[in-house]
Every structure is written in C-alpha cells, then in structure tokens.
Amino acid sequence: MAPSSRPSFSFSLLLLSAASLLLAGGADAKFKGINNWCKTADYRQLCTDMVKAAETQDEALANAVQSTYDATVRVLPLVDALGTELTNLQGETKTSVIDTCKSSFDDALDNLKEALTYMAAKDMHTAIDRIQTAEGHYYDCSDAIKQMGGNAESLSKASKVLYKYGSNCMAVATQT
Fold first, then answer.
1. Which of 130, 139, 134 is nearest to 158 (CA)?
2. Is residue 13's pLDDT more than 50?
3. Number of other residues whose CB lies within 10 A of the CB of residue 120
4. pLDDT tens digits for range 105-131
5. Residue 128, number of CB atoms within 10 A of its CB
6. d(Cα 126, Cα 139) in Å, to the nearest integer?
7. In terms of C-beta distances under 8 Å and separation of at least 24 residues, what long-range contacts does 8-11 make, across chains too?
8. What is the pTM of this model?
9. Rounded to 5 degrees, what are φ and ψ at 131?
10. The pLDDT of residue 12 is above 60
11. Domains in the chain, please, with CATH?
12. What pLDDT, on the 0 to 100 scale, is given for residue 113?
C-alpha cells in the first residue's frame, strides 16, 4: 500500500486540542476583572476591591488587611447598639454577650494592626497568624449571641461579611 500524502492527524487528537483551547479561554473569562492575587479567594470580587490595583503580593496583602480593618471599624456602631437589639436577654446574660462582642471586635482590630506591623517587619509567618486569629474573632460574637438565645441579625450578617474579608486576606497571604 502506498503511503498517504495527507497528514496523519487523528480526529480524536484534533478534538482534544480544540477542547483544550476552549477550556483555556474559559479559565481566562472566569478571572476577567479579578486581581491576580485574588484568584484563589473564595470571594474574588470582594477581594479585588480590597486589594485595589496592587501588583505585588505584599502590596495586595497590606491593602487587604487595611480594608478588613476599615470594614471592622465600620461595624463597631452595631456592636455599640447591641444592648438595644438584645431585648430578649436580661441582666448578666445580656452584659456577658455585649462584653464578648466588644472584646471580639477589639481583639480582631488589634490582631489586624499587629499583622500590618509584622508585615512591615517582613515577618510573614506571624502576620499570617495574626490575620487568621482576627478572622476567628468575627464569629465569637455571633456564637455568644446564639448560645445565650439572643438575636442580633444585623450584627450576625456583618460578622459573616467580615469573615469573608478575613478569608480573602488569608487567600492573598497564602497564594503562590
């Protein structure tokens, strides 16, 4: 049999190549408008807003931590108004929940400040530890309210949003 003058491409190889190109284009579309340091974040658009136009990981993380700090400060009036929202709790129970919430948010702010300080000193291990600790504080208040039978929906919602901020900081900090 005489050799064929046609190229020896197989149809399945051609189909596989076309599928790969389509998927690669889809991946680019998935991250369109997302900052490079937010591609592993669970909340990518929020992360992109947090890191602003950062081009380096250090800059992105500093912006993300500062955004988280600022968002936490904006939630403090909800913590201050907690006493009027917890109408079903009385006496020491109510006081205990309010103290826990104030302490949680104050501790989160302290940890975020410390994270920025450690980042400036190039101690990323400790900075990441402080970010992770701050992230954990956002649910302490909600947990205390639930455990005592209280209901503070606005603060619970705010805590969930702040947790997203903390999660994004961790994603930026650990992305390689």
1. 139
2. no
3. 11
4. 999 999 999 999 999 999 999 999 999
5. 18
6. 21
7. none
8. 0.81
9. -65, -45
10. no
11. 37-174 (1.20.140.40)
12. 98
Give the integer Cα–Cα distance in Å for 128 and 166.
11
Quickly state the pLDDT bin for 4 (edges 50, 70, 90).
Answer: low
Question: Which of 146, 154, 144, 157 is closest to 103 using CA atoms?
Answer: 144
153 has a pLDDT exceeding 90: no
Structure confidence at residue 17 (pLDDT): 53
Q: CB of 45 within 8 A of CB of 60?
A: no
Spatial distance between the Cα atoms of 113 and 110, rounded to a whole number of angstroms:
5
Give the C-alpha separation, 95 to 99, whole Å: 6
As a whole number, mean pLDDT of residues 13-38 equals 62
Q: Which residues contact 100 (CB under 8 A, 6 or more apart)?
A: 140, 141, 144
Single-letter code of the amino acid located at 131: I
Any idea which residue has 């209280």 for tokens? 150
Neighbour-count burial for 23-59, b at 16+ CB within 10 Å, e otherwise: eeeeeeeeeeeebebbbebebbebbbebbeebeebbe
